Amino acid sequence: MNTAAQTESGLGAYTPILRRRAAYIAIIAPVFILLAVYLAFALTPLYQATATILLEPSSVDPKVVTTTVMSYSNQQIELVQGRVMTIEPLKDLVKEYDPYPGTALSPHEKAQKVLEETSVERVDPVTLKPLQESNAFSLHYRNSDNDRAAEVTKRLAALFLTYNQKSRQQAAAGAAQFLAKQAEDVSRQMRAIDEEIKGFKNQHGDALPEYVARNEASIDRQQHDLENIQQEILRAEEKESLLAVQLSQTSANMITNSGDMTDLPTVRAKLAEAQQRYTPDHPEVKRLKQALQQLSDGQAAVSRNGIAANANNPLYLTTANQLQSARKELTTLRAEAARKTALIDSYEQMLRRTPGVEREYSEIQRRRNSLQTTYQGIQDKLQNANIAQNFETEQGGERFTLIRAPYPPRLPVYPNRVGLILLGVVLGGLFSGIAVAIAEASDSNIRSARDLPIFGDAQVLAAIPHISNTRDRRRRRLVFVSWAAAYAAALFIVGTVVVSALR
User: What's the whole-model pTM score?
Assistant: First the structure.
């Protein structure tokens, strides 16, 4: 026999078995299939709505506008997810839109259930296929109502978008407020140092290092003035000496009627001569005595400055006046010289104090300059922070963008109806085959010549075929009708469930 005949003979050998065991196949396989179909449409379906969000980089060159919000694209999605996917924001969501109406769950429990039914998956922004290292992600939410699944997903995506925008705006505003506070603190310190410098200047005055050149010039000028005054003092002293000598040689009073002016020795000499020549009662003698008395009285009335108090000699008076003027001028010059000397000493003391004052003043100025530099740097950063704040308010920085909006899904993600039905078909065929194999293995009946054991060269002469009578045919029809009714009822039930689920 050829190979085709052997194959046909082998396949043909299974036909009687399938006929004999048709009941197993007719019972087991449909049960699994119908059960799988029933479960596929009887289980409560869950519809999954998906929104895809892209973490879009800034469209402005960072060299043009520098943002104050730190951004880590690899972590930004997880950070926002960790802030949004919490109970409190979700409680607000379920209060605005109830994803589970008709249930006795509290807002907290509903928020917890939304959190359990939501998942985030990194995807490729173009193909939307899962991709671990990606700046796009899909937000999945499952609900038994496809419309509510889409609406809740839409609101969840809005939470992601608004939270990212608000958080960046708050971060930018916080940076600007922090820098403004720092600038105010530094400005307050600068004002305090300015007051310290003002008090330091009031305390040390012209001893400050900035007045060194002026003090040195003042010393030179005062020394030059002092030298001129000293020369004037020498001239005034010479003038005073000459006038004092001239005054000492001039009589303070007139002693003759003719207006001649004499001094005390001359009057005494003339009186002695007159006494020798005339008697004591002679008018000349009396006149000379009177003149002598006047001169004596005049000498006794000399003031402390060496000038007679009751002088009536015009020449004496003129000389006395010149002497007084010379003395006043000399006093004034000496006072001016003393003042100039005191000024020179004060300027020299200032110059001697200047190194110490300069060290203290330099330390204060260094602190002032350091604060000024810090303040200027903070002001520059504050200006950039204000620009960055406006930049973030206008959403010019890194932002979340919805690239695929959620829509009501047509097919549920649970249960997997096609997969469950295919699983029923596979299990039905598998268990049917197992049942047929077990039944054949345990059956020792002989139904054909092939089942007879052949001894030696003996051959089967003939075989009597199975002859069905009326009773057998009636019994087979009854069994067939029973199975058909059972299958019709099962199909009706399953069909009703399928139609109800599809509606």
Answer: 0.52
